[in-house]
Amino acid sequence: MTYRIAAAAELVGVPATTLRYYEDIGLIEPPTRGGNGYRTYDDADLARLRFITATKNLGIPLADVAELVKAYDVEDCSTVAHQVVEMVAQRLAETQTLIGELVALAAQLQTVAARLAEAPAAGPCGDGCPCATAAPAPLADRRTFVPLTRGPAPASDEPVIACSLDAGSVPDRISDWQALVARATLREHVAGGIALTFSASPALAAEVARLAAAEQDCCTFFTFTIQMTTGQVRLEVQAPPGAADVVAAMFGIAP
Fold first, then answer.
1. What kind and span of H or E run contains 255?
2. Measured in whole angstroms, how far is the alpha carbon of residue 140 from the centre of its chain?
3. CB burial string 21-46: b at 16+ within 10 A, e below
4. Core-most of 96, 130, 200, 202, by most CB within 10 Å?
5. Where is the signal peptide (predicted)?
6. What is the mean pLDDT of residues 235-245?
């Protein structure tokens, strides 16, 4: 079956201009044209375009998508899937780092907003006024919870999905978790979260316990369960349904 560009674009879920753009940059070969000069796409073209759209929607750069398309056309599915997994892992690491940076920025902005609210009602600005000195300073005796999700506030009996870790420590904490999660030998779904299994060693067991305790202190909506058996350490991470994206971003997902 063949499709004109408007029908093909609708079936793939992108504007017709996107298909023309893909053609212009060489991401796809120019489609066959009918006797009337109109572009025509067949089912194989649509399957390829859906693959392109799916990988692009994962945030994979178009230059990398182009390499995947080359593999898609000549390799078996397992080989293509392996390449996609590698690119997704890279995007996940980048996204987790960005989450840490955004949480840190949110904490800084909340601190700035609180200090600016203390500005005097009258008088000119000067060197010592909050407008000029609102940059956040370390506050050892109090913490600010930064919401990690959007949407309405939870009911009074539900945990708040927020983090109180000071802004400067967030990127390092994210990096610590990334390094630990990368050492997992098994990932499994559990109710409300994920379970990570590691090959046991005294140092690893101590690191799991240290990170879990530190994380639960600043993100009280998490529940961590550590099980130690011969040769293995198992960490279960659970959270309310509203925090599912946070769990996936920090700890990954089970295959």
1. none
2. 30
3. ebeeeebbeebeeeeeeebbbeeebb
4. 96
5. none
6. 89
DSSP secondary structure of 44-91: HHHHHHHHHHHHHTTT--HHHHHHHHHHHHHS-HHHHHHHHHHHHHHH
Q: Is the pLDDT of residue 161 over 70?
A: yes
Q: Does residue 25 carry a pLDDT above 60?
A: yes
The dihedral formed by the CA atoms of 155, 159, 162 and 166, expressed in degrees to the nearest 10: 130
pLDDT in tens, 193-227: 999 999 989 899 999 999 999 999 888 899 999 99
Domain ranges of the chain: 2-74, 90-117+130-251
Reply yes or no on domain 2-74 having CATH 1.10.1660.10. yes
DSSP label of 145: P
Burial 149-170 (b: 16+ CB within 10 A, else e): eeeeeeeeeeebbbbebbbeeb
pLDDT at 139: 41
Nearest 10 degrees: Cα torsion 59, 62, 68, 74: 150
Tally of CB atoms within 10 A around 122: 4
How big is the chain, counted in residues? 255
Q: For residue 165, what are its two tokens?
A: 């870790």
The reported pLDDT for the residue numbered 141 is 38
Q: How many whole angstroms separate alpha carbon 26 and alpha carbon 30?
A: 8
Report the Cα–Cα distance between both ends of the chain, in Å, rounded.
35
